[in-house]
Amino acid sequence: MTETIQYARRVGGSLMVTIPKEVAELENIHSGEMVQLEIKKMKKDWFGACKGIGGLLRKDEKLDIKWKKFERNG
């Protein structure tokens, strides 16, 4: 079984998902043949979505950390 991730598109009142040419060739699928599909909705990956926000520390804690680093480095 070959896996691929594709977007669903609206066609009339239905949704359609295409099978990429490479997958069709690999699985030897031809027009008019029946295929079995397993449908799973993808979850969004939010990793890196909020770049530049920084840590979840209060301002006072951030200043304390910076001050401690400054004291150590002299």
Please describe the topology of this protein.
Elements: E1 9-11, E2 14-16, H1 21-26, H2 59-73
Instruction: Determine Rg (CA atoms, Å).
Output: 25 Å
* Order of strands in the sheet with most strands: 1-2
Largest β-sheet summary: 2 strands, antiparallel
Helix content, binned percent = 25-40%
Structural class: alpha+beta
The SSE string, one letter per element, is EEHH
Total strand segments: 2
How would you explain this protein's 3D organization?
This protein is an alpha+beta fold and 74 residues long. It has a domain at 1-40. 28% of the residues lie in helices and 8% in strands. It is built from 2 helices and 2 strands. It has helices at residues 21-26, 59-73, and strands at 9-11, 14-16.
Quick structural gist:
The protein is α+β, with helices and mostly antiparallel strands and 74 residues long. The protein has a domain at 1-40. The chain has helices spanning 21-26, 59-73; strands at 9-11, 14-16.
Key structural traits:
2 helices; alpha+beta; elongated; 74 residues; single chain; 28% helix; two-stranded antiparallel ribbon
